[in-house]
Amino acid sequence: MKVHHVNCGTMCPLARRWVNGDGGLFERGAMVAHVLIVEAPHGLVLVDTGLGTGDVADPGRLGPFNLFASPTLSREETALARVQALGHDAGDVRDIVLTHLDLDHAGGLGDFPRARVHVFRPEHAAAMARASRNERARYLPAQWAHGPSWSLHEPDGERFFGLESVRAVPETNDDVLIVPLVGHTRGHSGVAVRGERGWLLHAGDSYFHRDEIHRTPAGCPVGLRLFQAAAAVDDGNRRHNQARLRELRASAPEVRVFSAHDPVELDELTSPEQK
Ligand SMILES: [Zn+2]
Description:
By secondary structure, this protein is α/β, with parallel strands linked by helices. It contains 11 helices and 12 strands. The protein is globular and about 45 Å long. Zinc ion binds next to helix 5.
């Protein structure tokens, strides 16, 4: 399957050095919302949706996220615009597979009202319940007010390079898998896609900076380190699953692992050599 890597939500938080690990403290940082557009045999499959046209039209609904993330909110960056730029329309998107339902990942759902939305069952339960203050801020019911056709998944004994996984989109056989990596949220998962160049693993918010996974010893700019610990619903499990990703990198280097928000990882995957 051909896979397009696109950015569906630039964010420019304060203190670039603490976010990106380079540049100055008084510069703005740069983060992306890494989304996959997959050309599957039965239509398009999206992995995550970034921020959508509903967020661009009504930024106020994002609440405090606007303050700490400073999203640029441009219509050209939405998944809908990215799909249209490839010559498709919204109706061509048959399935959306989400790493989790945080507002910077689920914002585009309303732009594809007819798509089936696949998510790990505990994540859907957490987003519907919004049981804590943390979860009331991160999950935005307005983003799924159109009533998507949910497809909720539970582990079925499938493995992905030793990690528990779940077959997500039946029409792709076993080429799109949900890989539970909980901690950031209650049902946070990675999404594995077998592209024409081999396996990709969209690790969502399992980590935020490439040096956490791709460098030894691992490192992370202080701002992102503190943010991840504060945002996690279960920080012990988050760190445990991050360590499992480092093990996967070592034992299966052929799997291309990347996170949702690192702009350098996205650049590498959209560079001409990767096309
Ligand atoms: Zn995120």
